[in-house]
Amino acid sequence: MIRVKELSKFYGNVKALDSVTFDVNNGEILAFLGPNGAGKSTTMKIITCFMPPTSGTVEVDDFNIYENSFEIRKRIGYLPETNPLYYNMYVLDYLNFVAEIRKIPKEKRKERLDYIIDTCGLAAALTKDIGTLSRGYRQRVGLAQTLIHDPEILILDEPTLGLDPNQIIDITGLIRKIGKEKTVMVSTHILPWVESTCDKVVILNHGKVVAYSSFERLRSQYPDPQNVTLETIFHDLTIKNISLSELGKITETSENVWSDKNNSAANSVSTNSEGGEQR
Ligand code: ADP
Ligand code: MG
Prior knowledge:
The radius of gyration is 22 Å and the shape is globular. Helix 5 runs parallel beside helix 6 (165-179). It has helices at residues 40-47, 69-75, 91-101, 106-119, 135-147, 165-179, 191-197, 215-219, 230-238, 253-275; strands at 2-11, 14-24, 29-33, 55-60, 63-64, 76-79, 153-157, 183-187, 200-205, 208-213. The strands form two sheets. It has a six-stranded mixed β-sheet with strand order 6-7-8-3-9-10, sandwiched between helices. The chain has a four-stranded antiparallel β-sheet with strand order 2-1-4-5, covered by helices on one side. The longest helix has 23 residues, at 253-275. It has 279 residues and is α/β, with parallel strands linked by helices. Magnesium ion is lined by residues 40-41, 81, 157.
C-alpha cells in the first residue's frame, strides 16, 4: 500500500504540491487526475524516489522514501510520462537489458520475459527496432518494462498520452487486465475509462487534493447522480472551483459556464461599441 502524507514540493518559488495526502490500498486501481500542471507527475516522481519532496513523506508498505528508497523502487514498476526508451534497440534486447538492470536471476529471466511478452502482446514485435514501432506499441513496451521484476505496485504517468482512439482502447484494456493482479496508480485524461475501471479517484488542482473518493460517491452528491459524468465533476472542481462539500448544489454545470462566457463576451462587445473603440 502507498501512504502519501502532507506532501509539499517547491520548484524554486513555484509551489507544485501543497500538503497532498491520500492512500492507495492493495489491489486498488487509483486514478490520479487533474489539469495539466496540477502536480501529478511531481507526486509520482516523489513516490517512485526519483525526486525528494520539500516536506511530507511517502510510505510504501513499511518503507519510507527517506530511509528505504531502494526497497520502494523494488516494489514499484514506473512508467514515466515521457516513456524513455532506446529507439535503436530491438524490443527483445531492450527487455533483456531491463531484466539485467532489475537483477532478475538468469534462471528466472526466460519465465519473466515470456510472461510480460504474452501479457503485453509483444510477440510479433520482438525483433523490431523500438524506433520503428507505433506509439501504441511503444507504450506496450513501456508497460512490459514496468512488469519485469513482478512489482506489487504500478505507477503509470499518462500512459495514453498521444495515442489514437484505437491505441487508447488497446492500452487501457491492457491496464485493466494488469490491474486485476496489481495495485495501480494511473494518471490520465480518459475520464470515461476511469468511471468504468478505477476504484478510487484523486483529483489535484494547483497542487492540492480537491477530491479523494470513488466516482460513485462523488456523483451521489448531485441531485440526479445517474446523469452526472466524471467530466462534469472534474470541471466543477477544477475550473469552477466549487468545493467538494458544495458539489451538486449547483445543477446546471456547463450551461452556467457557457452563459457566463457569452454574457461577458456580449458585455465586452457592447462596451466596445458604446465606447466607439472599434471601427
Ligand atoms: P502535471 O503532471 O499534473 O501536469 P507537474 O507535476 O508536471 O504537473 O507540474 C506541477 C507544477 O510544477 C507546474 O506548475 C509545473 O510547471 C511545475 N514544474 C514541474 N516540473 C518542474 C521543474 N523541473 N522545474 C520547475 N517547475 C516545474
Ligand atoms: Mg504530468
